[in-house]
Write a structure and sequence with these properties.
GO terms for molecular function: ATP hydrolysis activity; DNA binding. By secondary structure, the protein is mainly alpha-helical. The protein is built from 43 helices and 13 strands. A hairpin with a 5-residue loop joins β1 and β2. The protein is elongated.
């Protein structure tokens, strides 16, 4: 058996199996042939239907090619369907071979059976006919003239078949089924009077006589308001009989035709709808009519009344969100407020809607399935009980009512709720829906407002709304309470630990009388039980913050939850690649799972910098830590990732892409600290192997205090480690101590490394060169000239080895230049330093060039009486070095460079700017733990007293500028000084 279907998307079935037609052209061609209803369709018409405005130049040839391909796809049996005809082709199938043919036959048979009084047979025929209907005929074509007539005939036949099926059900006594079917479709064709007539009679026979009369009044208002006409005689007669309580309306005969709104004894004849055209009501007419309907008794609707009561506590810090909510709700019918547990979603919508009388609040936290949703909404609408389909009841109740339906706490119903929301919005004109959830509903047209935690610090430096909320809630419990300086520190610490979550802050405030804010701040990082239970009358459906978070996590599927619990060791956010590297149960779907976690508001995504970075709120991190089935494995995986990252990126810091590496390290500094501390505690040998990388990271983006303490701790914990590892770490410690200004400690570490090494062992050669270079640098900073001469000579000889790297030879030449400076041979020293600069430029070591240019500037400035030309030359070197250190970041060297700039500006009389620059240099040096003035005590000794005198004469500086502002202050000043 072969069947061609066009009631809905075109398809062909051969013996019940759908045939693959091979593409859009073939499907449209088959649909076009079906428009002929067995008659021939011309080549030009076929071409227009198949290709539209892009119809090929040779339509006949193109149609022939398409027909050949379609015949091939249909196979031998189906190919015989397509028959050539004069000027075109026709589909040679009888009514039994097409769904529209079968549909027409069955609807006709059903109407004939109904007219003959056989309602049961009519139901069978009409139901089987409507079962063939999969949608609008020929959806492949828009309103094209070639199909409009045939499509209109089928659509009208469908409407008549549907209506007369309900009439047949009424004859058989099944009024409930008729009510359900008619209520669901009455608004789709509001001008078909036959449909209203059947619905009213079905309601009347279901015992809902008042509602039946209300529906008749509603259709009268509709026709009068929209079209300016009264209902037809059938509706008017039915209304009169209902008002007169005509008992014959309740009669369901055993046989013979039913008395459907006709007088007794009148024969039944199926009829089409009234002459009023079928078209949808406009939004404006619906809105105008709904205002009148809201106050009419017996309309089946419910006038919206606000049942929202504001909590007694003060609402703090959400003015911008309220304004945005009002803006979106005014312009859109569906708005969802999403955010993590405890962020205040419910409180926000209550504050928004409390003053609005047109609201229906529906709490859904206790609803467990789709079956609970509609009854919950009905209860909020004031409908005490629901008979039949609850969605039909809701549509009828809300159809003519403007108002705001608030669906609160929807996250666990997101799989079931969208269908209900779409249905309500489709069948009501004046209803807007506002939902709160931890994830969006995912409905087309939904506008989502992400609700973020309260900010802790305001933009003007004062306490932000999170701290303000904490103070207000503490004051509510203790009217005489006033914040002390210690309380201010503790309040900020508490709000940071709680991520600015309003619920968490309120629960912390409730403990102030027991622990004080300082006590809470001390205990909170490790103990969530510091927080009080949720108080009576709270808007939260959960009894504690932990249970609120658990509610979010429990909604996740197994794999998503496993990933979430694995991510807690990340303390400074993470990329999806980092998440993938630590997920031992990974299935290659990390991005998809992270997307789910972000949608569920348990992970936050930041895409402001062009690439996604993810983080967890600290409260959720602690929950995941406490519920991770294997926290040690999670920490170990995180530490392994940190090791790889730190060692890889540190190795790039002296190369062309060092700026990218520095940015990565700066972003991940929080994770680096966590991972290194974990290794110190559990795998000290791994920490020891990371010592060199740690020193490089700290000089670039971290703090040198962290590096020195960390390397010292690793060396202490690994006294029996391999010699090479200990020497590498000791040299790294010497380098870190040198930049921190601890020159004696740097010298001691360098000499310790030299003592451990064997000069005759080729494997130790490079390490020995690095240790000797570090010793020379320490001796220079200590001004131990005699010891430096001896150490430098040993180092110089060692660099003559063919295995010595070029960087070590450059260091030896710089050392020779330093000796020339000590001996007063300034010109020779400068020439040697310039030669070193040329060498490192040739092999592309920009960082080395920046350091050499800094040395050159200090050399020029360190003369007894530097002339303005020398100072300007020094400024040129400093500007070049700063450019390098911006491209290949090195915070410690940058500050040394800027300190030289301070001296240069003093020499040129720009003392006020020098003072401001000096204050910034010292502030940032203190932050990262470096000594920016160390060159002043070696090659710049002549400048020391001049610098002190110059700064003493300047005006006191204001607040220290930021790092970028500090660099801009220097470079812009230099640009002004060197203008021609």
């Amino acid at each position: 058996m072969i069947l061609c279907r066009i009631l809905g998307p075109v398809s062909v079935e051969v013996d019940g199996v759908v045939v693959d037609l091979g593409g859009a052209v073939a499907r449209r061609l088959l649909a076009a042939l079906a428009t002929g209803m067995g008659a021939a369709v011309g080549h030009s018409v076929l071409a227009d239907l198949v290709w539209g405005d892009e119809s090929p130049r040779d339509a006949t040839k193109s149609v022939r090619v398409a027909v050949h391909r379609l015949r091939t796809a249909l196979g031998p049996r189906g190919a015989a369907w397509i028959v050539s005809a004069p000027g075109g082709y026709r589909l040679a199938v009888g009514p039994a071979g097409t769904d529209h043919g079968l549909f027409t036959e069955r609807v006709t048979a059903g109407l004939q059976a109904l007219a003959a009084g056989d309602a049961a047979a009519a139901i069978g025929s009409l139901e089987s006919a409507l079962a063939l209907w999969r949608g609008r005929p020929w959806p492949e074509f828009d309103e094209m003239a070639a199909v409009s007539a045939a499509r209109a005939r089928l659509l009208e036949l469908y409407e008549v078949g549907f209506e007369e099926l309900q009439a047949a059900r009424l004859e058989c006594g099944d009024a409930t089924a008729a009510v359900v079917a008619l209520s669901a479709t009455i608004t789709e064709a509001p001008y078909r009077e036959r449909r209203w007539e059947l619905l009213a009679l079905a309601l009347y026979r279901s015992g809902r006589q008042a509602q039946a009369l209300a529906e008749l009044r509603r259709v009268r208002d509709l026709l009068v308001d929209e079209l300016g006409i009264e209902p037809g005689p059938a509706l008017r007669e039915l209304a009169d009989r209902m008002l007169a309580h005509d008992p014959r309306l309740m009669i369901v005969p055993d046989s013979g035709p039913a008395e459907l709104s006709r007088g007794a004894g009148q024969p039944y004849a199926p009829r089409a709808s009234s002459a009023a055209p079928t078209r949808p009501m406009t939004a404006a007419s619906r809105s105008a009519r709904s205002v009148r309907a809201a106050g009419r008794a017996g309309s089946g609707g419910t006038a919206p009344v606000s049942r929202l009561e504001r909590p007694l506590s003060t609402f703090i810090g959400r003015r911008a969100e309220l304004d945005l909510l009002h803006e979106l709700r005014t312009a859109n019918r569906l708005v969802t407020v999403v955010g993590p547990a405890g962020v205040g979603k419910t409180r926000l919508v209550i504050e928004y809607a409390a003053e609005r009388p047109d609201t229906w609040p529906v709490p859904l936290a206790d609803s467990r399935s789709a079956a609970d949703i509609a009854p919950s909404i009905a209860a909020a609408l004031g409908i005490p009980s629901v008979i039949g389909d609850p969605m039909t009841t809701l549509r009828n109740a809300l159809r003519d009512q403007p108002g705001l339906l608030i669906l609160d706490n929807c996250e666990h119903l997101v799989d079931d709720l969208p269908a209900i929301v779409r249905d309500l919005l489709a069948h009501t004109a004046g209803v807007h829906i506002l939902t709160t959830s931890r994830r969006p509903l995912g409905i087309a047209g939904e506008r989502v407002i992400p609700l973020h935690p309260l900010t802790i610090d305001a933009s003007d430096g004062r306490a932000g709304p999170a701290v303000e909320l904490l103070y207000e809630r503490v004051s509510a419990g203790r009217a005489d309470w006033r914040a002390t300086p210690d309380d201010e520190w503790a309040a900020h610490a508490i709000c940071r630990a709680l991520d600015g979550l309003p619920l968490a802050i309120e629960l912390a405030a409730a403990r102030e009388r027991v622990l004080g804010l300082s006590g809470i701040a001390t205990l909170l990082p490790e103990r969530t039980d510091v927080l009080a239970p949720t108080p009576h009358g709270s808007l939260s459906p959960h009894d504690s913050l932990t249970s609120a978070i658990a509610w979010s996590v429990e909604q996740l599927d197994t794999a998503d939850r496993a990933l979430l619990l694995r991510l807690w060791p990340f303390g400074g956010g993470f990329t999806w690649q980092a998440a993938e590297s630590v997920w031992r149960d990974g299935d290659g779907a990390v991005l998809a799972r992270l997307s789910t976690l972000v949608d569920r508001s348990v992970v936050i995504a930041d895409v402001t910098n062009g690439s996604a970075r993810y983080r967890m709120l600290e409260t959720i991190r602690r929950y995941c830590r406490d519920n991770d089935p294997d926290p040690a494995a999670s920490q170990q995986a995180h530490a392994q990732w940190v090791r790889r990252l730190m060692r890889e990126q540190a190795g790039l810091l002296s190369r062309s892409h060092s700026a990218d590496a520095a940015e990565v390290l700066a972003t991940e500094i929080g994770n680096i600290r966590i991972g290194f501390q974990h290794d110190l505690a559990h795998h000290p040998r791994e920490a020891l192997r990371s010592a060199g990388a740690l020193a490089a990271v700290s000089m670039t983006v971290g703090t040198l205090r962290e590096a020195t303490r960390g390397i010292q701790a690793a060396l202490t914990a690994c006294s029996d480690a391999a010699l090479i590892d200990r020497v590498e770490a000791t040299i790294a410690l010497s380098t870190a101590e040198l930049h921190a200004g601890n020159h004696t400690a740097a010298l001691r570490s360098a000499e310790s490394a030299i003592e451990l090494l064997d000069g005759t062992n080729p494997e130790h050669e490079l390490l020995l060169l690095r240790a000797c270079s570090s010793r020379c640098n320490a001796l220079i900073q200590l001004n131990e000239v005699a010891a430096f001469r001896l150490a430098h000579e040993r180092f110089r000889v060692a660099t003559e080895s063919p295995n010595a790297p070029e960087s070590m030879r450059v260091n030896a030449k710089l050392g020779a230049a330093m000796l020339q400076l000590y001996d007063g041979q300034i010109d020779s020293a400068v020439q040697n330093i310039l030669a070193c600069r040329e060498t490192v430029t040739e092999y592309g070591n920009l960082r080395a060039r920046g350091r050499i240019e800094t040395v050159l500037a200090w050399t020029l400035l360190g003369q007894v009486s530097p002339d303005p030309a020398s100072v300007r030359e020094a400024l040129g070197y400093l500007t070049s070095a700063i450019t390098i250190f911006e491209r290949q970041p090195h915070g410690a060297e940058m500050l040394v460079c800027l300190d030289a700039g301070v001296c240069a500006l003093i020499c040129l009389g720009r003392k006020d700017i020098a003072q401001r620059l000096h204050a910034a240099v010292l502030a940032h040096a203190a932050r990262i733990g470096t000594d920016p003035c160390r060159y002043l005590r070696s090659i710049g000794q002549q400048l020391a007293s001049r610098k002190v005198d110059g700064l003493a004469d300047a005006h006191p500086p204001g607040p220290a500028p930021s790092w970028s502002a500090m660099v801009e202050l220097f470079t812009s000043t230099v640009a002004d000084l060197v203008k021609p």
